[in-house]
Amino acid sequence: MPAPRTVLLTGAAGGLGTLMRGLLPAYGYELRLLDAHPVEGEPDAITADLADKDALREAVKGVDAIIHLAGISLEASFEKILRSNIEGTYNLYEAARAEGIGRVVFASSNHAVGFTPRPQGDDPLIPIDTQRRPDTYYGLSKCFGEDLAQLYWDLHRLETVSVRIGSCFPEPTSVRMLSVWMSPDDGARLFHAALTAPDVGHSVVYGSSANTRIWWDLSGAKALGYEPQDDSEPYAAQLVAEQGELDPGNPDHAHLGGHFTTHPPIWPY
Length: 269
Known about the structure:
8 helices; seven-stranded parallel sheet; 33% helix; single chain
């Protein structure tokens, strides 16, 4: 599949969106930016809420594909998650369907399977078809997004790659993150692969770098053409010295979702 030229990037002012704004143009993309908040340094960015159906319809008009990062990225009340992540994602898909957009890359999350026990020792890697076990309303909303993407493929032939992202930061900040970290450069590589792979239908893949301590199976992402180049292990010695190795008896360390399963961080807005 040839690379799309114009891509709508929702959530462009957020942490991941900011990283991708800087990295994706090198792959030849012209980005159209959208966020509920002004995007610093981007006067042409669209400032619109996911509840604004007319603004979304206008935002998707004429683009070749969408990377959907917008929404609440931590835990919040069900009412807030419903409005932003569930109804908002539906509104975006409806706009995409109405405008004949061919592909969406949806930012799902490892928290869709957050209550999955983390692998230990010689345990096998977590497969992509593991039972979904969301750890929060946030994780639940990502399960909804994956199902919505499947419905829109089956009903409308709108393709989606749902990427269950681990943690995409310039460098890992915790021992847990050594297993789920995705470097920004690898994030751009994965999004590019998701935008250009042929015949994806609705594909669900895990999103991380090729970490020595990886917990999940990246074969689905690699089948799209993703070739991760980075590994969190160079950061391991310092993080382990500061925080210690993960403790199987600690509830915060027992599951894939980490402390989201016990005391999740709350969306501040």
